[in-house]
Amino acid sequence: MLSISATAALWFAPFVLPICLYVCFTDMRELRITNQANLLLLIVFVLVGLVALPFDQYLWRYVHLLVVLVAGVALNAGGVMGAGDAKFAAAAAPFVHIGDLRFVMALLAATILGAFLTHRIAKYTPLRRLAPDWKSWHSGKRFPMGLALGGALAIYLVTGAVNGS
Length: 165
What we know:
mainly alpha; EC 3.4.23.43; single chain; 165 residues; hydrolase; 6 helices; Prepilin peptidase CpaA; 0% strand
């Protein structure tokens, strides 16, 4: 059982899942996560979080955002991740209950591996013809991390809605 309440996950999921799908799509197509998507994700937390979470938890979740943003800026400065990825991770952080951190880290590792393998398999098979102009096919070693980040947040919220406290 996850620490996130099923009620909170159910409140967040209908608003967050379309954003996650959009992020996955645009990052594969353009190799960028738009500021608008990141801002919209944050606005969803600001508005829906007031209804979905007890007020003290709601306020503490902003600390998650700041910690992940600082880490993301450092990773971006070191060339480890893109700026859009760092901003998306920071905007996604408030949705995660701190008690689920180990689960989310394992989920993120699994989605990174799954997304990487799926993307590379599609890149070298006829599936590529479905979207021949995507920049991610021609990006060399670069990988659309939004595919894994958006997927992980979506899976977490759906799992929380089913197995939340």
